[in-house]
Amino acid sequence: MKNLSFQSTQEKLSDGSPVLITRIKGSIFADTIRQLENKLMSFFDEGTRYLILILTDVEYMGSTGIAILLKVMDKFQQAEGEIKYVCSVEKNAFLSSLITYKFFKTYETSQKALEVLSSEINMVPDPMPPPPPFPKEGVVFPHPPSQHQGKLKIYDTEEAAKTQQTSQMSRRKK
Asked: How far is CA 146 from the centre of its chain?
């Protein structure tokens, strides 16, 4: 049974968050797929939330390997983490199939992946706009659905709305 090798270093993102940069060497196929999955999940279980995988020394990866990368990526994203992939199309034959999956963010260097990850982490989402203010005067009161099919009418006061409803109910009874 062949083994994969993993070499990891830790860096810091611009906000101080730790990111694990891991180089994988070898071929990812039936004999090594569990080793890959176990190693990547151990990173997650140990608290890693930002991971850069360097795949330039991966000689082969089939569809099962890609499925494992998707599974692990999903796990990281559910925990508000992220995985970036470093690989060169010219160096890796399997990469052409990897790039066809739009889910994978690939970069030529680990430095570029680190820069992009830092910029994404530092983005502040736009705050939600405040809800529109409630009208200070007037009450929204629905007309009877049988007559107007859910249209609303605005009255100046709650008393006016009640009076209107009472008079409509009286007319219907007659």
From this structure: 45
Host domain of residue 59 = 5-122
CATH code of the domain containing 16 = 3.30.750.24
Residue 137 DSSP class: S
Helix axes 33-45, 63-78, angle to 10 degrees: 10
| Angle of CA points 94, 65, 98, to nearest 5° | 40
Single out the residue of 19, 18, 23 nearest to residue 8, CA to CA: 23
pLDDT tens profile 16-39: 889 999 999 998 888 899 999 999
Alpha-carbon distance 113 to 123, whole Å?
16
Q: Which residues contact 31 (CB under 8 A, 6 or more apart)?
A: 1, 2
Integer angstrom CA distances of residue 141 from 156, 161, 171:
11, 7, 18
- Mean pLDDT along residues 56-73: 87
